[in-house]
């Protein structure tokens, strides 16, 4: 096992490094430089793809005379859009598995942590340097790509193939993507501290990320307060376009406010259906929905929950590493 020292090999004097990174910070960055280069390359590639596709889309819309004329269909390749949104959705998981899980587990497995902390570096100082690196990488990747994807989607959301409550858009724009990157990175670090083996920590982090994404998909609608829209049973809804309104559920209702499922009067004959409607006094359609204007508040609420969970995991990691042998 090779180690990196901070002393000159010929004189033994401390090496003076010029620039923002010195001492332990330089050592930690140098130790994980391969991971840093990979993340930077992914961010640059993602930024280039988003900027290029946005430019191509704008050219297509301008040639069609949008917004004075109807936008052509599609304005962007469905395959490209799916690739971009899939990559953004996988980014937090990749950071958790490739950055978070090995960050401390690799040092405990190889014995580097004991070597560093038994010399002149305090354990907590070493841990803070490692956590700072992991979180800065996650925040940088999530923030840059979130800003660029928001720049692409928000002004042209009416012509793009995804509504605001789709996971690909809601989780890829605004503060949610950086918060998700930080949370799964913190989860990977925590799992690595507990398991102390890199490969096992990466596998468990991957499974945990899949579980979190499944739960988040079910939890996302609950980030905002839904509204009810009522209109006559045989009338047309004027609620708004699907781009602005996300319908969560729908019922039929009586004049006294009692709600029934749509199939309550699904009978074999029209006469039986009419008799059922009359018997139960059904006179309205009722729709539960969320509005696009709620998106910003919902995203910040979700980001706050993820950041709070990140803080809790960080506190646990600091406590665990400070109290237990490495």
Name the features.
alpha+beta, 4 strands, 326 residues, 9% strand, disordered N terminus, 10 helices, 60% helix
Give the low-pLDDT segments. 1-16
What can be said about the biggest beta sheet?
A: 4 strands, antiparallel
Strand order of the largest sheet: 1-4-2-3
Beta-strand percent range: 5-15%
The quaternary organization reads as single chain
Helix content: 55-70%
Query: Measured on Cα atoms, how large is the radius of gyration?
Result: 26 Å
* Terminal CA distance: 17 Å
Elements, N to C (H/E): HHHHHHHHEEEHEH
Structural class assignment: alpha+beta
Written description of the protein model:
The longest helix has 33 residues, at 78-110. Helices cover 60% and strands 9% of the residues. A hairpin with a 4-residue loop joins strand 2 and strand 3 (259-260). Helix 3 packs antiparallel against helix 5 (123-153) and helix 5 runs antiparallel to helix 10 (295-323). It has a 4-stranded antiparallel sheet with strand order 1-4-2-3. The protein has helices at 23-31, 33-64, 78-110, 112-117, 123-153, 167-170, 176-195, 198-219, 270-280, 295-323, and strands at 227-232, 245-254, 259-260, 282-291. It contains 10 helices and 4 strands, in the order H-H-H-H-H-H-H-H-E-E-E-H-E-H. The chain starts with 22 loop residues before the first helix and ends with a helix. By secondary structure, the protein is α+β, with helices and mostly antiparallel strands. Residues 1-16 have low confidence and may be disordered. The protein folds into 2 domains: 23-223 and 294-323; 227-293, no CATH class.
């Amino acid at each position: 096992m090779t180690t990196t020292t901070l002393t000159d090999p010929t004189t033994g004097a401390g090496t003076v490094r010029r620039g923002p990174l010195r001492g332990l910070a330089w050592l930690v960055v140098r130790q994980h430089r391969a991971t840093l280069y990979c993340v930077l390359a992914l961010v640059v590639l993602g930024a280039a793809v988003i900027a290029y596709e946005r430019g191509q889309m704008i050219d297509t819309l301008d040639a069609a005379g949008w917004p004075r004329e109807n936008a052509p269909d599609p304005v962007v390749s469905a395959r490209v859009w799916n690739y971009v949104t899939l990559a953004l959705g996988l980014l937090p998981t990749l950071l958790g598995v490739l950055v978070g899980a090995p960050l401390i587990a690799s040092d405990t497995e190889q014995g580097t942590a004991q070597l560093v902390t038994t010399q002149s570096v305090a354990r907590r100082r070493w841990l803070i340097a490692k956590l700072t690196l992991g979180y800065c990488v996650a925040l940088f990747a999530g923030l840059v790509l979130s800003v660029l994807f928001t720049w692409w989607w928000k002004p042209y959301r009416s012509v793009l193939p995804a509504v605001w409550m789709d996971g690909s858009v809601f989780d890829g724009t605004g503060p949610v993507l950086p918060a998700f990157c930080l949370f799964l990175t913190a989860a990977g670090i925590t799992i690595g501290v507990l398991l102390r083996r890199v490969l096992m920590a990466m596998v468990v982090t991957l499974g945990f990320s899949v579980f979190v994404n499944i739960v988040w998909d079910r939890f996302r609608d609950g980030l905002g307060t839904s509204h009810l829209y009522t209109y006559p049973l045989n009338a047309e809804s004027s609620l708004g376009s699907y781009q602005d309104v996300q319908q969560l559920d729908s019922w039929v209702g009586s004049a006294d406010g009692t709600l029934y499922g749509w199939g309550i009067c699904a009978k074999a004959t029209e006469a039986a259906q009419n008799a059922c409607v009359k018997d139960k006094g059904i006179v309205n359609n009722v729709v539960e929905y969320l509005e696009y204007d709620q998106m910003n508040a919902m995203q910040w609420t979700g980001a706050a929950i993820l950041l709070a969970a990140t803080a809790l995991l960080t506190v646990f990691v600091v406590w665990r590493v400070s109290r237990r042998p490495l």
